[in-house]
Amino acid sequence: MNHPDSRAAASGFSYSRVFFEELVDAAIAHARKLGATDAGAEASEGAGLSVSVRKGALETVERNRDKSLGVTVYVGQRRGNASTSDFSRASLEQTVQAAYDIARFTAEDPAAGLPDEADVVRDYPDLDLFHPWAISAERAAELALQCEAAAFAVDKRIANSEGAGVSAQQSHFFAAHTHGFRGGYASSRHSISVAPIAQQLGRGGAMERDAWYSSQRNADDLASPEAVGRYAAERALSRLGARKISTRECPVLFESTLAAGLLGSFVQAVSGGALYRKSSFLLDAMGQQVFAPHLSV
Fold first, then answer.
1. Minimal CA–CA distance to 161: which of 170, 173, 153, 172?
2. Which phi and psi angles does 44 have, rounded to 5°?
């Protein structure tokens, strides 16, 4: 296998796509050598910077760089998985051996196996997901401080803050298996966030916290730090004076960010894994109406 090259460094990664392809192919070849019926592997790497501030002062600067090789081995309809963060040849062979040994001693699963070759995608579009952000820790701290300062400037009732942060993250992977799939891509995700605390004027006034953020693949598309800070402060202020209502049936309006999250339970309930394990509240609900008629997903 080749060592990391300059092409990877130019993109901010330590390992190139070519290196990952060779790593994955070597893992699959070793699984075949051991006697695996089928096998798949995925190599990945992530890197990033996260900076946080609170009440006008720098709190943390964190840099992360993670890597992983995951291997799945099939022996008939028995499956084994193992992973490692060591890309050496010795570690690769040990990881494949571990996955193979797990598969040999695992109970047969009639649903285990790779997709049929006819169903494997061969061509896929470039979704333009990779936009690395070469931001320094100093500049990230400046943006976070601007964001928090904008929140404090909205109203004197913004009395405190849980902090503001800027994050720049990127990753890439390559995966393949013995039924013909080969593919991978690089992606990025960057964000600016802040969590101000509002307090009613007067001694012992009630306090409320809220937050807001902007998250984008391309840093050029992020909302300005000032806009994020102002809106977060307005959200915190809007919580002041809230009151309880009695137990009742009434219409409820969910804002968009929460409404999207409500679908999470449904997606989990209809996932193949949950249905196969019989751990879904929608077991045997195929063809049944599960949402109110006026809802469209």
1. 153
2. -145, 160
With a cut of 70, list the residues of the chain below it in pLDDT: 1-10, 203
8-33, pLDDT tens digit by residue?
555 789 999 999 999 999 999 999 99
C-alpha closest to that of 108 among 80, 72, 71, 70: 80
Six token digits for residue 277: 């394990």
What 3-state class would DSSP assign to 90? helix
- Report residue 182 as tokens: 């080969």
Query: In this predicted model, what pLDDT tens digit does every residue of 139-185 receive, in sequence order?
Result: 999 999 999 999 999 999 999 999 999 999 999 999 999 999 999 99
CA-only gyration radius of the chain, Å: 25
Residue 12 near residue 133, CB atoms below 8 Å:
no
Closest-CA residue to 229 (of 48, 53, 50):
53
Residues forming beta bridges with residue 213, ordered by sequence position: 193
The pLDDT of residue 10: 55
Distance CA 21, CA 141 (A): 37
DSSP 111: T
Q: State the residue for tokens 């695992």.
A: 106
